[in-house]
Every structure is written in structure tokens, then in C-alpha cells.
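Re-run with default settings, no changes from the original entry. Doing this only to confirm the output is reproducible before filing.
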Amino acid sequence: MLNPEIKKFIAKHAKKSPEELALMAGRYPDLPMPFIAQQVKGRSRTRSKLPSWHANEDVVFPKSLALEQCTSEAVARFRAGLLDAGGTAFDLTGGYGVDARFLAERFARYLYHERDEELAAIAAANFRVFGLADRVAVAHADGVEKLRAHEGDLDLIFVDPARRDSRSYRISALEGCEPNILQEWDFLLGRARRVAVKTSPGLDVSSLLSDLAGVEAVYVISVENDCKELFAVARKDFAGEARIHCVNIRKDGSVDELSFFLSEEKEADGEFAAPGRFLLEPNASIMKAGGFKAVSKKWNLKALNPRTRLYGCDEPPEDFQGRVFEILDDVPIGGKETKKLFPKKKANVISRNSGMTAEELRKKLGLKEGGELFAIGAAVTGVGRRLYACKLVRN
């Protein structure tokens, strides 16, 4: 797909836009300019998301939608490390092949399936680039149909169902994805030692566990405090309670993790109090998973209120997984003193059970969004609704 002439042209014009390249088509009639524009655009978009793809001049990039939908390299590497190595893995929905690349390194044989012929061809080319051609078998086919016909034992079935409808709108519900995981779940469990499924971050953890039998672990995965996905691992003979893992992958590659059982969260007693010098906000994965009492237990913190999801202390724990704000001042929400807290009329507004959305609170305070200060509105047990003027001291 990438001969020396094309690679040289791409390297020379790497900073040009697709529109500029299109205008050059008449000057280079022997070059596939639409394909070259696709490569330049893809390479420019993957510097952070797929660094080892971006750095390799032999890698082929697909159309924009496939790049948008694919897993980031950081998540794919982390996720592959969660799964036991084995003999044969079966990938129902191969896509661009980011997940397949790292999973294939853990299995003697990796069976990749993709219904889009062009995408399957690009993935096959890249498997060769990454030295995986001997262990990855690429098939342009419907993965579910191929699985029904497959003979032999499987150690893993991996599925990342398409989460867009016929109009390309994003969807979260499992029954709306393709393939329909709810419809095929029992079949999948019966065909492999383990089944791993990547789902939307918009899906509720409790709903996921209610819908899918045999789930032994759910990973709520964020990158730099931005929740990216839920990842569930299941096996047919598992009848226990799934452990919830809240994972945040930092920019430097380090990983924060907090794990708990939902039963522990429901049974634990909460402790609530007004904050000391600092307000602490758990990271996006903890907030998504609902591990709020687990936070109190791990770091001996008291929440402000059962539904506020913020914690207070006089000395923040060094290993706290989330943002830490130092409180500069606070007043009751709605009081005349509120406007004195932000003399420059600018702050980053956060609302936690304050009776208003963040946008409503911002308008009430007459603030522009941004700046160094944070305006945090929150309900506090025994105190009422307070407005805190804060500065961020740890992210």
C-alpha cells in the first residue's frame, strides 16, 4: 500500500492539509492523492492517540471514522495486560486492529474478523509492519457467523461492538450495538474460556452486570481523567460477584486504580462533614463507577454530603486519585458575599448537588468561565449549600 515513492511524498508534505493535497492532484497524476491525503490526515491525528503507529512510516491509516472509533494505544496496552496469555483468541470485530495488535502478542494464534474489506486489508498490512503476520489470521467476514462455524477450543473471545446506529449517531445500550451482545451473550460464553467485551462509557455499571451473566471483573477506564470505556471480562462458570476496578491512565503512563465490590458500597456506612482546608474530587472512573464509600474507606475521608461526591480534609493524601483544591474562602450560595469571592468575574464553575447546574450557577454568579480560580457549589450536611472559592493544587 505504501511504496517508497508514496512514503517519500508523504514525508515531504506531512504538514499540508487534505484540501491542499487535493489541489495538488493535477501536478501528480501518477500518485493516488486521495489515499495520500488519507495517510497525511491519519498520521497527523494519531501523534498522541497512537504514538507507535504515528512514528512508523510503514503504517497505513484508514478513513477518519475508523480512527475516531479505535482504542487509544495506552488503553489497548493496559487492557491486553489484564488477560491471561493463551493458545487461540477470536476477535469478532477487529476494526483498525489496535486492540488486536496488543492482544495478539499474548496468544499463539489470533483470529481477526472485520466486515469492512478495506479496513481488514489495512489491518493486515499493519500486522505485517508490527511483525505479527505469523500469528494473526485476518478474515474479511462477519465474526459471529465465523464463530458459529469455528471448530476447536478458544481461550478468549474479544468483542468491541459498533456503537453507532445507521445514521452514525453514538449509542450506549448493548442491544443497540452491532453485534447485539445481549442476543449473543450465552452463545459467546459457551464458546471460549473467557469473553472480554469493550462497551460505551455511557453504560451504567449496574446495568452491565444485570444484563451480562458470568462477569467476574469490570474495568472503568479513563485516560488523563477522561472516561473512555467500560471493559468486562466474563466466563461461563463464574457465579460470584464482579469486582469493579476504577482505572485512570496518566500522561506519563502510570496507572491509578481503586477496586471494590458493589455490595461493599451498598452496605458501608457513610460519614459526612464540612471540609477542612481542602476539597477533593475523585477521578472520572471512580465517579462513573460510584465507588464513593470506597474512597472514604481507602483514604479515611468524610464526604460533604451523601450526594455531593466531594470530600474534605486538612491534609490531602499523597496518593489520592483525583483533583485536590485548596479552599480560599466560602460563603452561603445566594448570599450577597458571593460576588466578592471572584473580583475578576472569572472562574471555573463546578456544581455538586447545589440545586443548580454548573451553567445555572455560573450565570447566577455572573462569572465568565476560565481563569485560575474555581467556584465550587456544593451541599454540605448540617451546613447547607455553600460556595467555595478554590485553587487547584493537584490534578
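The chain has a mean pLDDT of 93. The domain at 4-68 is CATH 1.10.10.1110 (Arc Repressor Mutant, subunit A).
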